[in-house]
Amino acid sequence: MRAVVIDGKGAFRLEQRADPVAGPGLVTVRVHAAGLNAADLQQARGDYPAPPGWPADIPGLEIAGEVEQVGAGVTGVSVADRVMALVGGGGHAERIAVPADVLLPVPAGLSWQEAAGFPEAFSTAWDALVVQAGVRAGDRVLVTGAAGGVGTAMVQVAAASGAHVVASARRPELHGRLKELAPAGSTVEVVLPGQEGGLAPYDVVVELVGGEDCLRRVELLRTRGKVLVVGVQGGAVAPLRMFDLMLARAQLIGTTIRGRSPAEKALLAATVRTHVVPLLAEGELRVPVDAAFPLDRCSDAYARLAGPGKFGKVVMLPW
């Protein structure tokens, strides 16, 4: 099979690799589309290695495709099932072996591109907002970097939970598209980063950008509010005025999924399968796709991922 490989200099190239085999508890999936994520770029820089058991040099954290082989001990999965999954790596290839307990069904009518952009973004959003922050109807939620793949998922999950959502995005030309993500009966307010304070206080601030000033948003919190640190592409080190945190009796929560144990990932997949996939199937959640590239243009795909002005997900196709 063909696979995207990270070379020793942090660049991407195509190589031939052996097809995976469905061992016990695993299935092999023929990949029809795969999502790109900031973690792929971080892995190429050497900052975010793949967890044990996953390819060290093949990026890709989310896939969508058809089951080709079913390993021993796997139940409830059949050859030709349409599936999607959040994986530990290796997704940017024509085939991948995946633990059966992390598979999610692809709803009827959903395109492969949309399916490939769902698992990482919406698993992250649901886990951070609902499971960890306990977002509730009536909460005010600020989402920074809201136009990206995880950002558009955060906006929708917060709105679907009944929260009042403020989406922060640097490019005014994307503001209208962010407002259109609001489910029926709700609204999404959209601001430039410098305007976030005008709509404070917030119960939850979702930090998807990072950078030196990101933790200043603690001062925008309501008493007992929470800051969720989910993305740090803009910089992974930031000072914190701890007295602001103390005065607000606030919580600072950092989260990532990739390094969790297999049991934790299986539990999260079960939660997403039960609570989030039905919302996708009913059309209450959408997966905006910014651009799609074939595998042989992988460098262009990663350049688009790293560049400005995206709305939603960048995906790769194996043809």
Chain-wise SSE layout:
Blueprint: E1 2-6, E2 12-16, E3 26-35, H1 38-44, E4 62-70, E5 82-86, E6 95-99, E7 104-105, H2 112-116, H3 119-132, E8 140-143, H4 149-160, E9 164-168, H5 175-179, E10 188-191, E11 202-207, E12 221-229, H6 242-247, E13 251-254, H7 262-275, H8 277-281, E14 289-294, H9 298-306, E15 313-317
Parallel strand pairs: 8-9, 8-11, 9-10, 11-12, 12-13, 14-15
Antiparallel strand pairs: 1-2, 3-4, 3-6, 3-15, 4-5, 5-7
Order of helices and strands: EEEHEEEEHHEHEHEEEHEHHEHE
State the fourth-level CATH superfamily of the largest domain: Medium-chain alcohol dehydrogenases, catalytic domain
> How many structurally independent domains?
2
CATH class of the largest domain: Alpha Beta
Could you name the ranges where pLDDT drops below 50 across 5 or more consecutive residues?
Answer: none
How many beta-strand segments?
A: 15
Query: How many DSSP H or I helices?
Result: 9
Kindly report the average pLDDT value: 96
User: What coarse outline follows from CA principal-axis ratios?
Assistant: globular
Class per helix and strand makeup:
alpha/beta
Percentage of residues in strands: 25-35%
- Please give the alpha-carbon distance between the first and last residues: 12 Å
User: Do you know the CATH architecture of the largest domain?
Assistant: Alpha-Beta Complex
Q: Helical residue percent?
A: 10-25%
Radius of gyration, CA atoms, in whole angstroms:
19 Å
The CATH topology annotation of the largest domain reads as Quinone Oxidoreductase, Chain A, domain 1
Q: How would you sum up the major sheet?
A: 7 strands, mixed
